Amino acid sequence: MKLTPQQIESLPAHLESNYHTFRESIRETLQESLENGDAVKSLQNLLGDFLRALNRTIVEFDAPENTLNQVLTILPK
Q: What is residue 2's DSSP assignment?
């Protein structure tokens, strides 16, 4: 999956508390990885953590089977 900055900016979002929480986590991860390691790998891991948490929570709450696929349809192909 390849996303351009313009495509990312057009995704649905509520720039409220979740946005700021996510930004803080991203900032911490990026700052540490720029000082000590591989920024790309660290951010890929952060994205993987988020997607795994999303999937496991969907399963935990017995959401309809196709929920994750429907959520991910906002991403361009």
A: -
